[in-house]
Amino acid sequence: MTAKAKPHKPSEFESVLLAIAGHDLRQPLQVIQNVHDILCRGLRTASELRLLQYGQSAVERLRDQLDELLAALRLCESGKRVKLTSVRVEPLLQQATYANKVAALTKGVSVRTVPTCATIESDALLLGTVLRNLVSNAIKYTLPGGRVLVGCRHTDQRIRIDVYDTGIGITGDQIPRMFEAFTRFDPARCDGLGIGLFIVRQAIGILGHRIDVASTPCRGSRFSILANQAERSE
Predict the structure, then answer these.
(1) CA angle 7-126-69, nearest 5°?
(2) Residue 227 has pLDDT above 70, yes or no
(3) 193 and 122 co-located in one domain
């Protein structure tokens, strides 16, 4: 599957949404987090601790959803200002796995990154966003005890960045719809907004890369980004 996305000029409405999400919504969220931290300091009964854990989970879920919205809005805003440069892939792979470390440990999913010296023509910020979303998605749809593997392959003058998982997989009829905004095939497993893969598709389109998907239900999936290899300097 090749992702094609035409970045559009952000409207004034989108700019206002970005300002609201970045400031007005984060302020009360931080207040809630501070109050929660204060309550956790005292001695609590088992039932109270359980309620506090539920509250912390809700705060983290809200923060994650807010981050997703901000990422989508920023993507629209910066779409026409991207200039491709030489980007080392391995640091971005390491950052993507580190950003999802807590989620993987909590769920009991093993995440491994294969070392690589690959360098591609891309944008580190957008590509980092893509990789974080792909690794996060792989963890969400992989059962406890499963594995996620992130690495690279050289194909002619191109580099293929792969995110493998041993998750629940995707059926053939779901693949064409999976990059649409607010698509969630299994809400019971994922409580996000369903815009992670939409962000991936938009970013890939802006970068001029290609994304391929291969999956077998009940066995796992492979998401691959194909990008041009950067020219080696003297």
Answers:
(1) 70
(2) yes
(3) yes
